[in-house]
Amino acid sequence: MRISWIISLPGLLSVVSALAIQKRDADFYSVRTKLHKDMSGKAGDPIEKYFHESVFHPHYDGRFADKQLGYRERRHALSNLIQTYLATFSDIGVETWLMHGTLLGWWWNRKILPWDSDSDVQVSEDSMHFLASYYNMTVFHYKTPRIPEGRDYMLEVNPHYANREQSDKLNVIDARWVDTTSGLFIDITTARYNYTHPAGEGMLSCKDGHEYRDTYIFPLRDTFFEGAPAKIPFAYKEILEAEYHEKSLTLTDFEGHHFDDDKMEWIPVKQDIQKPIEAEKAAQPPPKTDAQKAEEAAKQSEEDKKKVEEAKKLEEAQKATEDAKEKAKQKAVQDAQKNDTPPDEQKAADKRKQNEEKMKRDVKKDSVPAS
């Protein structure tokens, strides 16, 4: 079945067509690819894991790429990736919003951070059900001024999306929007209502360990990102501070870049930044996988819970100490009132009483007749 339509993205996108392909687990041999060898890490991954990142970088799909892109080429590809994603989801009526590092890029200059190699977005649970039912394994063909020859983008839904539990650490990503030319992709996670959360109603949880109060997400705010209409969470600043700390919103030197306030751009300060960075990456620890990130997030969540419990215990202990001090203070006041010297009024009363008794004695003495 062929689906054809026009998606409006001002000045960027032209006529678009999409070909819906059969829903299935898309291994190397079942997808359209120009490679002769599968570069995904499927062979080394647990059988329960659905998405397999490439063997050369965790932010590339090894079914469609066998090497990393250069600095400029990657930035252009990521820009096209998010533009086509936002345009498609707007056209099919699926609400989506920017999150994590992509939201941080929006904070600075409404663009992808130049050192990033992927993008992160979220959808609601109902939206993920809709995508899985009607658009899984659909390929969308786009033409842009940067790629006049056109490029295919594939929406792939992880069948494990139906598992709502955070314990499914091998499948924390629910869907991906994949550039079938470069292998770059957008991670799509689902924000699900957690009906048994200790914090009560209104808590949203993702399988990667992130949790939010729904009032932090909704209502969504309208904005622009990479020149395309987009949406962001309502309390975006609080979310960014919680995930990346306040310093990330003001630090102007990071990852070999300096933020130019006049140009509103991150400017590379390394001379070799335009070249592929395989050598530099080789000298550094390999990037963490989604499973590792989820495990760390779970550990951090446990640590946060312990800190909250410890803070409560400390608060209770402090309150008990204050109560004990107050009781001791009150007792000391009572004891002092019992043992203190009578006030001036009492002294005066005692003096008057003594004088009266003396006068009575004198009167009695004067009234006795002389012998």
UniProtKB/TrEMBL annotation:
Residues 93-191, 202-245 form the LicD/FKTN/FKRP nucleotidyltransferase domain. Residues 290-329, 344-371 have a biased composition (Basic and acidic residues). It comes from the Eukaryota. GO terms for cellular component: membrane. Residues 280-371 are annotated as: Disordered. GO terms for biological process: glycoprotein metabolic process. Residues 1-18 form the signal peptide. It is found in: Membrane. The keyword Transmembrane applies. Keywords: Membrane, Signal, Transmembrane, Transmembrane helix. InterPro entries: FKTN/MNN4/W02B3.4-1, LicD/FKTN/FKRP_NTP_transf. It is a single-pass membrane protein. This is 39e414d3-544d-4c24-904b-f08003513824.
